[in-house]
Structures are given as structure tokens and as C-alpha cells.
Specification:
By secondary structure, the chain is mostly beta strands. Helices cover 6% and strands 48% of the residues. The chain has a single domain, classed as Porin (Beta Barrel).
């Protein structure tokens, strides 16, 4: 309620007579139905993807409200989310449903997703409040929106960026951006969750927080490259010190760091490609996003102009995910993270994911998307899989 009152007070304080105030409202609703058939699995652990037929559905609905006065914007986005993910959202590092981070319970529940202020002054912009860190960082025009594009976690985002967030994917923080011609330099600082993938944010910001810097450069012929580096401080445990219980090794102000490269390139007026590379030190436990320490992903996206369906989009992409030696040894000893752990890992191999989709605009504002994902070596385990995931996404936006 504090955030809502803050938003209302700011809106009432704006001088109505001096300049017109613009108020914009739009909304979205997305439901993803997913199925996977049984697959080869000689054993399972507490965090294994279950080798049985599973069928689960997620639902999100969001109202995006923006109040604009001169160069000041106030964003308030109430959201509703519910549903389930495979095996309690466990068993695959590149999890196949990009909407499931918003879901904290099977029963749909409303909450305030974003409330933040954005202020622009010439080439400088700052934003402060509640939002998602990936609202500003790791953007890519061809793969960043699971409501219209690829839905696998390690394809829609840089899987090795353990971005600060609560269990729904949101945090509180500040972002500053400087734009000079085709170059943008942005930096942000955010609250970390109290526990791994937990629902509450840690207010001890001096000891526990996440910082990120990203440099973006737009070059000729429709290309953009983004390079980022990040450092997280949180009450994390250390893989090498842990036997099977990493919680026992947790200490405040433990550091995790990493970097990434993100490229988008237009091929024609209707087609483009993307590439992401990511790395983190892999010494401390995965904390907020997913259990990936190294990643490479890329793909292509094509609009349907050539077959007279300009609002349709078809895409195909691939991701290869890995973890550090310390992380793999911890899982081999029978350790568990918040997302993966088969109770043993005798044969570590990279996790390989292939995804393809066709986003069909039935009639605006309704989109229906069949999606197929092939997941080889789920949770880096050569003994299990492959897994075939078939999805159907229904999306409405207005």
C-alpha cells in the first residue's frame, strides 16, 4: 500500500495548469499450456524434472498505466498471476516457461508488479522504484518477451546473469542512463532477495545488493551490441565449502560476478538474428534467476510479410548452458540448488535446448502460438532425457 500511496501523491502534486498531463493505459493477458511426455530417467532426486506425463498451465494479466508530465513519467502496473510449472518449477536450468517466474501460487493472485518514476533531462535519464531489472538491461528486439517471442528462460534472457529479483522477478532499485548519439551507458543498483529465489527483498542494502553496468552501441545496418558486467552481494553459500547442504555455508555480503554480450542484427526488413553469451564465476550459489554459469544462445526471427501475414512471427533458436566445476561437483555429491538437483550427477554434460515457435495473429488483439522445445540433458545430466516440451500460448494485448 505504501507504493500505491506514493504513486497517488506524486500524480496529485503535478501542476495541471502548466502543462497537459497525458495518461496512457493498456493491458495484456497471457496463458501458456505446456505438456511433456515421459522420458528416459534411471533415477530421480528432490529437484528432478519428473519423467512422467505432465501438463501445466500458467496465467498472467497486467494493466500498464503511465502518467506523463513534461519529461517525467510515473509507471504503475498491477498484475495478476497464477498456475503451475513442471515438477514445481524444477529440473531444468533453461526452464521452458518464461511466464512462470511471475507465478508464486496455483491460485491467481493480484499484486503490484511495478511502481516507479522515470525522469528525463536531455541525454540523461534516471528511474527509481519497483520494477524488473531486465526491464532495462539485456534487451533484445528479437528475443526478450516470453509473451510474444521465445519462452525458454535461457533464450529469452542471458541465463548466466543472476539478476536481482524476488520470486516473481521484480525488485526495487535505481537505474541511470546516459545517451550520446548511438551509444548508451546505463548502470543500476537493486535489492537482492533474502533467500534464494525467495519472496522477500533484503533491505540491508549496504551488505546485500546487486549492481550492473551495460554499454550499448547501435551500429549501421540495423545492429546493436550490448556488453554488461555485474556484481551481486547477498547471503549466499559457496559450492566448494558445501557438502550436500549449501545453506550451512551462507554468509552475508558474499560476492558473485559475471559478464555478458548481447547482439541483435537485422538481416532484412522482416528478419533478424540475435546472439547472447554469458559467464559468471560459478563459485557461489545461484540466487535469484536460474542455475546457469555459462551460456551461449542465438536464433532468428522472421515476420510473415512474405506470406502476407505481416503480424505473424516465426522463430527458431538454440541455447547451450553449462555450470562451473565447483557447481557440478556439488551436485555430484548429492547437493541441491533451488531449481535443479537429481541427487547425483555422475555424468555432467552441457544442457542443450532447441526452441521454435509460430506466433499467429488470429485477429487483433488475439495471438495464438504453438511452441516446441527439445531439451537434451536436463539439469546437465547425461543419464536423463531428452525431453520434448509442447506448448500453446494464448496472448491478448490492447
Amino acid at each position: 500500500m505504501t507504493a500505491v500511496r506514493w504513486a497517488l501523491l506524486i500524480s496529485l502534486a503535478l501542476p495541471a495548469a502548466a502543462q497537459p498531463v497525458d495518461f496512457d493505459v493498456h493491458a495484456q493477458a497471457t496463458s501458456i499450456l505446456q505438456n511433456h511426455p515421459p522420458f528416459h530417467s534411471p533415477y530421480v532426486g528432490l529437484n528432478s524434472l519428473l519423467p512422467i506425463w505432465e501438463s501445466d498451465t500458467s496465467l498472467t494479466a497486467t494493466v500498464f498505466m503511465t502518467l506523463t508530465y513534461r519529461d517525467t513519467e510515473l509507471h504503475v502496473d498491477p498484475e495478476l498471476a497464477g498456475g503451475k510449472g513442471f515438477s514445481g518449477v524444477r529440473g531444468v536450468a533453461g526452464f521452458p516457461n518464461g511466464e512462470i517466474p511471475r507465478v508464486a501460487s496455483a491460485t491467481p493472485k493480484p499484486y503490484l508488479a511495478r511502481v516507479y518514476l522515470k525522469q528525463k533531462y536531455r541525454w540523461f535519464t534516471w528511474s527509481a522504484g519497483k520494477f524488473s531489472a531486465n526491464d532495462f538491461f539485456d534487451q533484445n528486439v528479437y528475443s526478450h518477451d516470453p509473451r510474444a517471442q521465445f519462452i525458454n528462460w535461457s533464450i529469452m534472457d542471458n541465463g548466466a546473469w543472476d539478476y536481482p529479483a524476488d520470486v516473481r522477478g521484480y525488485t526495487v532499485g535505481v537505474v541511470q542512463e546516459v545517451t550520446i548519439g548511438p551509444a548508451v551507458l546505463r548502470a543500476g543498483s537493486f535489492l537482492e532477495p533474502v533467500s534464494a529465489n525467495g519472496p522477500f527483498l533484503d533491505r540491508h542494502i549496504a551488505a546485500n545488493h546487486g549492481d550492473i553496468v551495460e554499454f550499448q552501441y547501435g551500429y549501421a545496418k540495423g545492429g546493436i551490441v550490448r556488453m554488461m558486467g555485474y556484481v551481486n552481494h547477498a547471503n549466499m553459500g559457496t559450492y566448494r565449502e558445501a557438502d550436500q547442504d549449501i545453506i550451512a555455508t551462507r554468509r552475508p555480503d558474499t560476492m558473485k560476478y559475471g559478464c555478458g554480450v548481447n547482439v541483435e542484427q537485422a538481416i532484412t526488413a522482416n528478419a533478424g538474428a540475435f546472439l547472447r553469451l554469458g559467464w559468471n564465476d560459478g563459485k557461489t550459489e545461484s540466487w535469484a534467476f536460474t542455475e546457469i554459469d555459462r551460456t551461449a544462445s542465438g536464433g532468428v526471427s522472421v515476420h510473415g510479410n512474405s506470406w502476407r501475414r505481416p503480424d505473424d512471427v516465426v522463430g527458431v533458436a538454440m541455447a547451450v548452458n553449462g555450470i562451473s566445476g565447483d557447481h557440478a561437483s556439488y551436485l555430484a555429491r548429492g547437493g541441491y540448488g533451488f531449481l535443479i538437483g537429481d541427487g547425483q550427477l555422475p555424468h555432467y554434460v552441457p544442457e542443450v535446448i532447441l526452441e521454435t515457435f509460430y506466433n499467429w495473429n488470429i485477429r487483433k488483439p488475439v495471438y495464438l502460438t504453438p511452441d516446441y522445445q527439445f531439451i537434451q540433458h536436463p539439469a546437465y545430466n547425461r543419464d536423463r532425457g531428452p525431453v520434448n516440451v509442447i506448448s500453446l500460448r494464448l496472448h491478448l494485448e490492447k
